[in-house]
Sequence to fold (180 residues):
Amino acid sequence: MNNNQKIVLLAGIIILAIVILSNFLIGPLIKELMATSVLAQEQNQNLLILKKTDKEYLRQIENDYKKIKEDISAYKIYLSEKQIIGFIMDLEKAAFDSSSKLEIKSTKFPLFNLSLIGSFPNVMKFLGWLENNLYLVNVESVQMRGLTERDLISKQGELYTSGEVMVNLEIRLPLKDNEK
Fold:
């Protein structure tokens, strides 16, 4: 075999290797890139749909908020300082009606700390009243926990059971504009 034949044979082998590599390595890579591109386009379409839906949802929430803000005076009563005693009496009555023990502490008017002890269903009944009562009440914080043996011992003279819960609430009473 002479040099020309060797060069032709070597060139043929190299060309054959390139064709084989392109069919088995580069072809699948190109197909994978095309599939990934299609998937990316579909995901982009989904994101655009979600973005549009989110904008519509936020617009609806803003409209609902404006409507509720305009109509809130018809649903809830802002308290005047003269009505605070009536509100406290209503709190105590709701605690009594829900068979719960209520302790009211005023830290900085119009902020109140409430401590409520009772069975879980009774405490939930009181919280339901607080949420749906006639007065506008902002709940600043809520902490609920079951009574422990230590709590039962420290409350000597009180009739508590280990199945009861203690709820500590911090509520703020919004006052009429001229009394804030």
Remarks:
- The chain has two domains: 1-75, 81-179.
- The helical segments are 3-75, 84-97, 120-132, 149-154.
